[in-house]
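Late entry, evening session. Most of the bench is empty. Finally got around to the prediction I had been postponing all week. Sequence below, unchanged from the version circulated by S.P.
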Amino acid sequence: MAATAKVPAEPRAAVRMVEPAFLDRESAAQFLALGVTTFCDLVRKGQIAKPRQLSGNRVGWLYTELLEFATSRPVADLLPPPNAGNRKGKGKRAANDESAPS
């Protein structure tokens, strides 16, 4: 008699992704597409929720409060300029310096 294979109730590919309850400073800033310094300035000014105490020396920002801050931001009419985020590499700068007349 042939053995039958058991089919799992839920396939492994269907694993649910769960959002974290808390984010550390770097992750919270990245979630909001901000630099860490800008994020900390907004926290100091009270524009973003303060962190919550997780343990003796550990704090974190509640994901839902960060999401609430993100969704409360006004819609922008202006698009970033075409060169936004493009940094000149050192190689380009060095190549331009060599071609300049002395």
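Two things to note before I forget:
DSSP finds four helices and three strands in the chain.
The mean pLDDT is 80.
Will write this up properly tomorrow.
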